């Protein structure tokens, strides 16, 4: 079975470069907001990324899931913490979030966590 997360990570740099070329103001504005909000604050970066992952699952946003699993790991989250945060999303969002748990697992496998 193909791992869509591996494909996603392989293509993402190219896609972001295209977005920067074709919508530079949008990319700059979003990046500035992201950096400001997702930095250290009352919540740690790790905690914020775990929250973002849960929201990505609830919203059924595959790119969000893949990117925030990667960011969770970079912020020091363990595989167990990532799966627990994903499970909280399932509790709150039910079946739609549950059907996206395989994407979390694919991302962890693609990143060899």
Automatic annotation (TrEMBL):
Sequence intervals crossing the membrane: none
Cited InterPro entries: AhpD-like (IPR029032), AhpD_core (IPR004675), CMD-like (IPR003779)
Chain ranges of the Carboxymuconolactone decarboxylase-like domain: 24-102
SUPFAM superfamilies assigned to the protein according to its UniProt record, in alphabetical order: AhpD-like (SSF69118)
Keywords: Oxidoreductase, Peroxidase
Superkingdom of the source species: Bacteria
A molecular-function term among this protein's GO annotations: peroxiredoxin activity
Pfam families: CMD
Protein name listed in UniProt: Alkylhydroperoxidase/carboxymuconolactone decarboxylase family protein
Taxonomic lineage of the native organism: Bacteria, Pseudomonadati, Planctomycetota, Phycisphaerae, Sedimentisphaerales
